[in-house]
Amino acid sequence: MVRRLGAMQSQDYGPAKWSIGQRTGVDNDTLDRQFDDGQFLRTHVLRPTWHFVHPADLRWLLELTRDRVHMINGFMYRQEGLDRLLRDRADAILIDALKGRRSLTRSELAGALGNANIVAERFRLAYLLMSAEIDGIVCSGPRKGTEHTYSLVEDRVPTVRSLTRDEGLAELTFRYFSSHGPATVKDFGWWSSLTQTDIKRGLQLVGDRLTKEQIGDVACWSSGEALGRRAAGPRVDLLQGYDEYIVGYSQSKYLLDLAGLTKTARRVPFNGVILVDDQVTGLWKRTVTKTAVAVEAVLYESFDNKQLAALEVAVDQHGRFLGRPATFEVAVL
Q: Taking a C-beta distance cutoff of 8 angstroms, is the pair 23, 261 a contact?
């Protein structure tokens, strides 16, 4: 699933795993083991935020988008006094600290940088490590308990054939529109950080593998594959707040809320998004204990009995993912 989508935004590790489990049926504990084993990685790529990415895709994705992401980070590099010379020096220190297939936590790497007289605190540390990720020096390592670690890319990522720039553009263009489509060129630009020139070239290279269609006044691209028949009755999905279905779009994001419910709704501090038949209908949050998970749902409009039954199915699915019985409460704004 991570490969099919190209990458999956994952700055919040726990909820981001749900985005995989929701689509594949793989449970939370299994995903933790797969992550620790390096079957999928977490690093900064495409944009200045963490993404899950398949190891076989990491190198070419970084090569394709590295310069753009460094450019986006330029203001913060200058703000924190992180010129290229200092970041190269930090990269060398990180390589030395992690050699021998070591995996170290953020605080342990901060100590290594500090011992070399590089101030590595708060945002400065974050952007030093992010720069090293974008440079393809480090990526996620196996967790130490609940703490995340960093490892050298050369220890976690197999050496595979490099893609030429054109091959990378074609591959990422097809992956995005075939998994996220119908979507627009601006959507893809937001998601990938690629320039309009690069995207135009990618579409040329992909050719008739993608289909162009007009939705209102906007040109959209997709694989053109027919969607499966929707099951009878409403379907409810509980999405984590940074799910690709939400953050994977910019220009066409309005299609998630055709009724305009979010424009007039009172704000509540819930991060999750509730969909009914692909439309935003409310927000949710979860409280997880060792023995149970409780879901609080806040709806923009009241659900009928069929929608409430579908919500219960979605809550039960989330409980099975976490390996805990699930309950839920509903309020209407």
A: no
100: left (phi over 0), alpha (psi -120 to 50) or beta: left
Answer whether 141's CB lies under 8 Å from 101's CB.
no
Distance of alpha carbon 185 from alpha carbon 204, whole angstroms: 13
- Only one residue has tokens 């200092």, namely 86
Global confidence as pTM: 0.93
Distance CA 252, CA 266 (A): 23
User: What residue ranges define each of the domains in the chain, with the CATH number in brackets?
Assistant: 2-156 (1.10.10.10), 165-222 (1.10.10.10), 236-332 (no CATH)
The model's pLDDT over 72-108, given as tens digits with 9 standing for 90+, comes to: 999 999 999 999 999 999 999 999 999 999 999 999 9
**What is the spatial distance between Cα 134 and Cα 69, in angstroms, rounded to a whole number?**
8
How far, in Å, CA of 220 to CA of 248, rounded?
14
